[in-house]
Amino acid sequence: MKFKIKNICCIGAGYVGGPSMAVIAKNCPDLEVNVVDINEERINKWNEKNLDKLPIYEPGLKEIIDQCRGVNLHFSSDVKRHIANADMIFISVNTPTKTKGLGAGQASDLKWVDSSAREISKYAKGQTIVVEKSTLPVKTAQTIKTILEESIIDSKHDSQNNLKFYVLSNPEFLAEGTAINDLENPDRVLIGGEDNQSIEALVDIYKNWIPEKKIITTNLWSSELSKLIANAFLAQRISSINSISALCESTGADISEVKLAIGSDKRIGDKFLNSGPGFGGSCFKKDISNLIYISNHYGLKEVSDYWQKVIEINEWQTKRITKLIVEKLFNTISFKKISVLGFSFKANTNDTRESPAIKICNDLLEESCKISIYDPKVHPKQIEDCLNLKQSKIFSKNICGEWTFSNSVIEASQNADAIVITTEWDEFRYIDWEKVHKDMRKPAWLFDTRSIVDVDLVNKAGINFWSIGRG
Ligand code: NAD
Ligand code: UGA
Predict the structure, then answer these.
(1) What mean pLDDT comes out for the span 121-145?
(2) Could you tell me which CATH number the domain at 251-471 has?
(3) 192 with 169: CB under 8 angstroms?
(4) Fewest Cβ atoms nearer than 10 Å: which of 28, 235, 252, 292?
(5) What is the pLDDT of residues 335-361, one digit of tens each?
(6) Active site residue 283
(7) How many beta carbons lie within 10 A of that of residue 345, not counting itself?
(8) Is the CB of 231 under 6 A from ligand 2?
(9) Closest Cα to residue 422, out of 278, 316, 306, 216?
(10) Whole-angstrom distance, CA of residue 166 vs CA of residue 98
(11) Cβ–Cβ contacts within 10 Å for residue 174, how many?
(12) Domain 7-218 falls in which CATH fold?
């Protein structure tokens, strides 16, 4: 029997659920796509008339929302109705690291996946394909299947009594900031499953815009595990280049030259070799932590120790930046003003989860300085939540460790002793350093943790300069 998929529901309207369903809706006009969430405020933002007020910022997203919303793409908090109407249900809920209880600090918190499976078991009707889109520990599909199958025994809500579930794994590989392009032209789509019919039903959806040779099908466990491993390998690459950035600073080698030299080897490749203040984002640390937890669970201590180092190098890299700033500014930044440029964890997103800027700002505040933060897309309220500290409207003479939000690079840098570039927003590449330098307190410093500014222009402006991997 071939499945006829007409109606899709996605549980979770976040950074993955929103953009991935928007791209499906755009490329499959015959499909009805409903994205549901228990967070009504988030759903209201997805339904905002003003497309600049969508809950997430992604280049190219608002154009697709404009095209499809209200046509075949809908955002709703009526979870029950849309589960009941769906032929295929994506689970795209958050799976953060547990903060307490068994496995705290390492294991994924699966309570939202568990509750989604239970909602599906309660409301689904007929034959339903359930697709794991969230990143999950290997073997989670077994848990989902068990919850769903138990519900069949007690399926009073399905009057036709033909309830049947099929579970697939279809992890998402999009990166924030390039999500739409990643979804439109992915390197691959991965689908893990146990029966050909349900796998084929999902392959048929992706075939609408993705060449078939890019669609990889595997068993469930390979698919679940591959997602964790892809993130672990990417994060490991960043820790590798970051460890070498410190060696470059000590030896006089230049990280950008080393990157070019090693990246030209096709076996190594030149992507994902930018040293920086340490990787941030909601997933790398979480997914490696989960890999460590799983390895320990299976008694593979050496494997878990190996991946633990990737996290440790990352934390060390972020920490050493503040130490360096304090050293360069005569071993005290107390009551000095530092301008922090960028707060999101990478450019082209308003996401601040695990952003290295949070740790750097907290470390700077700990040293009693005044910080003015500018980010083109992050709202000051979001920064207040991340730092757990309200912003001061103006700096006071006797309070140490306070921050304000600035509306531009120029405003943030006025009277500053130092500027720290923490996110690689494009506009920071093209700053008029001579103009900025005039308004800074002297001796003025620039710390470029992303290695994006033109060294010659900064030197010409007369600013003292430190750049990651160059010293
Ligand atoms: P998110 O926190 O932005 O969104 C998750 C949403 O799920 C939230 O809005 C939450 O309210 C909703 N939710 C939770 N339980 C629910 C329930 N029972 N019913 C309805 N809604 C519910 O998370 P995200 O960044 O979109 O990540 C989702 C998953 O995708 C995670 O497993 C993550 O690891 C993975 N992932 C994320 C990215 C990324 O770039 N953010 C990329 C690839 C994979
Ligand atoms: C990452 C992966 O790239 C995606 O494939 C995956 O789907 C996603 O995690 C996920 O599972 O959530 P994302 O975290 O959005 O995507 O962004 P990345 O581009 O991977 O950047 C992660 C962090 O590494 C950022 O802080 C970024 O600044 C840093 N980074 C990245 C570097 O320091 N150097 C690099 O060369 C690349």
Answers:
(1) 96
(2) 3.40.50.720
(3) yes
(4) 252
(5) 999 999 999 999 999 999 999 999 999
(6) yes
(7) 26
(8) yes
(9) 278
(10) 28
(11) 18
(12) Rossmann fold (3.40.50)
d(CA 166, CA 1): 13
Question: DSSP of 145-210, one letter per residue?
Answer: HHHHHHHHHT-TT-TT---EEEEEE------TTSHHHHHHS-S-EEEE-S-HHHHHHHHHHHTTTS
17 lines ligand 1 (CB under 6 A): yes
Number of the ligand closest to the Cα of 116: 1
Answer yes or no: same fold for 7-218 and 251-471: yes
pLDDT tens figures, 350-409: 999 999 999 999 999 999 999 999 999 999 999 999 999 999 988 887 778 999 999 999
Residue with CA nearest ligand 2 atom 23:
279
pLDDT band (50, 70, 90) for residue 160? low
Helix, strand, coil percentages, rounded to 5, for the chain: 45, 15, 40
For residue 162, report the distance from its CA to the centre of ligand 1, in Å: 30
Closest CA to 227 of 173, 285, 179: 173
Instruction: Answer whether 431 contacts ligand 2 (Cβ < 6 A).
Output: no
Q: Where are the domains of the chain?
A: 7-218, 251-471
Residue appearing with tokens 């705290």: 104
Q: Is 58 in the pocket of ligand 1 (CB under 6 A)?
A: no
Identify the active-site residue in 10, 28, 68, 283: 283
Q: Which two tokens stand for residue 378?
A: 């992050």
Q: What's the CA gap between 10 and 88, in Å, rounded? A: 8
Length of the chain measured in residues: 471
In sequence order, what are the beta bridge partners of 10? 35, 90
Cis peptide before 277 (omega within 30 of 0): no
**CB within 8 Å of 161: residues ≥ 6 apart:** 155
Q: How far is the C-alpha of 429 from the C-alpha of 464, rounded, in Å?
A: 17
Tokens 């933060």 correspond to what residue?
373
- The answer to whether the beta carbons of residues 453 and 426 sit under 8 Å apart is no
Which is the closest atom of ligand 2 to the Cα of 276? Answer: 33
The tokens of 135 are what? 């990143």
H or E element, residue 380 = helix 380-387
Residue 288 tokens read as: 């490696």
The yes-or-no verdict on residue 159 having pLDDT over 70 is: no
- Reference 47, options 67, 69, 64; nearest CA is 69
Q: How far is the CA of 175 from the centre of ligand 2 (A)?
A: 6
CA of 260 to the centre of ligand 1 (A): 36
- Report strand pairing: 370-374 vs 164-169: unpaired
Place of tokens 């990643």: 182
Distance CA 303, CA 447 (A): 36
pLDDT category, 277, cuts 50, 70, 90?
Answer: very high
